What does this fold into?
Amino acid sequence: MLEEAGFVDVRIGPPVDTFGGAKGEEKARAYEVFGHSFLARKPG
Amino acid sequence: MTTLPVDPDRLREEVKEKYREVAIAPNATYHFHTGRIAADRFGYDRDVVGALPDQAVESFAGVGNPFELRRLEPGERVVDAGSGAGFDAFVAASQVGPTGRVVGVDMTAEMLKKARENADALGLDNVELREGLLEAMPVEDGGVDVVISNGVINLCVDKRATFDEILRVLRPGGHLQFADIANGRPVPPEALRDIDLWTG
It folds into this structure.
């Protein structure tokens, strides 16, 4: 979606277990939800 | 015309209510980690976080580390989209230094109040907090070097409109660096329409 919006040089960082050990862990596991860092640049 | 899975105004009210709680009662139990536990989990610089007072860290409710793939450069003009109680804005201020500037934008009054109190307590005169939505940020066109965000874009119903708005405020060549959640398994349509799942 970032590229569709017009960003370039998109990078995605490794997954982090954002919800592990928290109350939301069960729902996160059900949909394989992880946190990621993203980096993108506006052309120009 | 984009069909949205939930009503944006209703979702915003639910999100405001959730993060109002995080501002007022940061040590309560939430579906996500908060405060220093979250910052440590996401790999923030321990020296930077350790130098911040509890009040400036306790309501941090991010989902990752927007500084992981790129450190900000001294002098950069930064917008923190969904700045909450200011934690990421304060980390950003430590990276851009006194010649840089950080504008935090948030829609939750209690978070903005806490962020302003924290910025004052830290003596950060290059951090400014403004009330607004990510889809309509009170920021001029093309005057920003970097937009950061943490765990907020996933709470915006219309992602494309949010990214369009970020592109509007960025200068050509400017960066978007953010942390957010992504799901490895598809979420069923009925779950996408369940507003309770959006806020945990």
The radius of gyration of chain A is 14 Å.
